[in-house]
Amino acid sequence: MSAPDLTGPDTGRPLVFRGGTVLTMDASSTVLTDADVLVVGDRIEAVGPALEVPAGTREVDARGGIVMPGMIDSHRHMWQTAMRGYGTDWTLTQYFVWYYLEHGKKFRPQDIAAGNRLAAIESLDAGVTTTVDWSHNLQTVDHAEAALDALRSVPGRFVLAYGNIQAGPWEWLADPAVRSFLERLRDAGDDRLGVQIAFDVLGDPEFSERAAFEVARELDIPVTTHAGVWGATSDTGIQQMYDGGFMTPETTYVHASTLTRDSYQRIAATGGSISVATESECSAGQGHAPTEQVLQYGIPVSLSMDTSVWWSGDMFSAMRSTLNADRMSEHMTAHLQGDTITHLRLRAKDVVEWCTRGGAHTIGRDADLGSLEVGKKADVVLIKNEDSPVSFPLLNPFGHVAFQAQRGDVHTVVVDGRVVKSDGKLVGIDLAPVRAEIENTIDHLREECGEEVWQAGMFPEMPAAEAAILENPYQYSDFKDESKRAGGEGRVLGR
Ligand SMILES: [Zn+2]
User: How far is the centre of ligand 1, averaged over its atoms, from the C-alpha of 433 (Å)?
Assistant: First the structure.
C-alpha cells in the first residue's frame, strides 16, 4: 500500500484573523478583545486592533471566537493510536502486559506508521499544532524510518522521541544505526521535526541506563522519561539521574506523580519540565497528577494525553481533567481536616498556559512557539462555532477554552503559516487511505493474536482473587521495586 502524502503545496498568501478575542499567552497572558492576528509567511507579523494588511491577504472572520496559540502535547505514544480505545478499561499493569510482554513485538514498521499518521492528523483537527511522539516501540531502524515518514507526511509540527521498550536503552542506543538516525534528525534543521530520546529509569542499583544518558549527552539530544510512575519508576531513578549529572533543563519528566519532596526539589533545582498527563494518571494508576507540587516548587509544566489506546489526543480534555483533578484533591485534602476551600489555587488561565507556552518551554522552543507574539512562528488556532449553543455568551475566555470548548469548535488551524484546518474541516487531508492502512494494521494484529486473545485483551475479566502481578513488568528488566511495599505514604501523596 502506498503511504498517503498530505503535504501538498500551500498558497502562501498572508492571512488575517479579524475581530477575535485573542489569548496571546505572552508572559502576562494578555487578552485582547476585538483584535486581529496577521500571519505573513511562516511568522506572526502583527497582533492588535484593526490591523492594516498587505493586498491579497486572506481574511478569516474571528468575531465571536477565540484566537490562541496552537496547543502542544508534550507526550503521546502516537503509534498506539492504531488501537484507538482498545484499552479503555485497562489499568497501567494491563497496558504494560499487553504491549511490553505479550504483543508489542507484533507491530511492523507499517503499523507504527499507520498509528502515527492517524494520531498526527487527529492532532491538527484538535488544534494541537505540536505533538511529541513518545515512540517507544521502534524495534528496528526500519520502524523508526516508518515513524518519521508518517510524521513528515502530515503538515503539523512534531518531536520524534526515539524509544524501544523491547530492549534496554543502553542496548539500542549502542547501535550505530540508531545513533546515525538520531544524528540525521538532529542535524536536519527541520523546525517542524525535533528529536528527543525516550526511556525510563527503573531504579535497578546497577543503573544500566547510565550508558544511555551518556549517549544522549554525547549526541546533545534531550531525554524524556516516565518518572514517578507507581510500581515502575520511583525516587531511586531520580536519585541516580541526579547523582550522574543527567538532570538538565532540557529533561522532561512525564507524570512525575509518585515522588517525594526530595525528587521534586531536584527537578526544580535542575530546571527540567514535568509533563502532566492527568487523564491518564486518573485512570491508569501512575499516581495523582502532581499539580500541587509543580505549583509549590515552581517547576515548569506542560500537559499531555499519553495514548489514544485509552483517550483521544485532545488538549481540551487535558485541561479539563487537570483542573478537575487538582480541585478534587484540594477539596478532599481540606475536608479530611474539617476545612473548606474558599479560593481555588489552580485557575483556567494556568492550564491554558501549560498547554501553550508551557509546552513550548518543555520542548525548548520558548523563542518561537507557544504564544501569539510578533516574530514567532505562526501556529494559530481559532475556536469558533456559530452553530453551537455552547459558543455564547463568551464572558471568561480562559474558562471558555478549558471548560466549554471542544475539538468540534476548532474552526481554523494554522501551522508554520499554513492553513491545515479551515471552517471546521481539515484541508487537503483524505481520510480514506488513512483508514485503509489502520484497517490493515488491525487485521494484522487480530490475526497474530487470534480472536479469543484479541477480545480478552480488550475486555479484561474481573479476577476472582487479587491480581497476581504486583510490579509493572518491563520486557528488558526483571528488576522489582520494593519501595512501594512498606506503606509508601509519602510517595502516594507526593510529600
Ligand atoms: Zn507515556
Answer: 28
**Residues, beta carbon < 5 Å, ion ligand 1:** 306
DSSP 8-state assignment for residue 306: B
Residues of CATH 3.20.20.140 domain(s) within the chain?
Answer: 71-362
Provide mean pLDDT across the span 11-39: 95
Cβ contact 50:75 at 8 Å: no
Q: How far is the CA of 226 from the centre of ligand 1 (A)?
A: 6
Residue 241, C-beta contacts closer than 8 angstroms, at least 6 positions apart = 201, 213, 225, 247, 251
Q: Which of 229-238, 283-292, 316-325, 464-473 has the lowest mean pLDDT?
A: 464-473
Å from CA of 307 to ligand 1 middle: 7
CATH class of 15-69+380-426: mainly beta
Percent of the chain with pLDDT over 90: 90
- Region 271-284: mean pLDDT is 97
Model-level pTM? 0.95
CATH architecture classification, 71-362:
Alpha-Beta Barrel (3.20)
The pLDDT, as a whole number, for residue 144 is 98
Residues spanned by CATH 2.30.40.10 within the chain?
Answer: 15-69+380-426
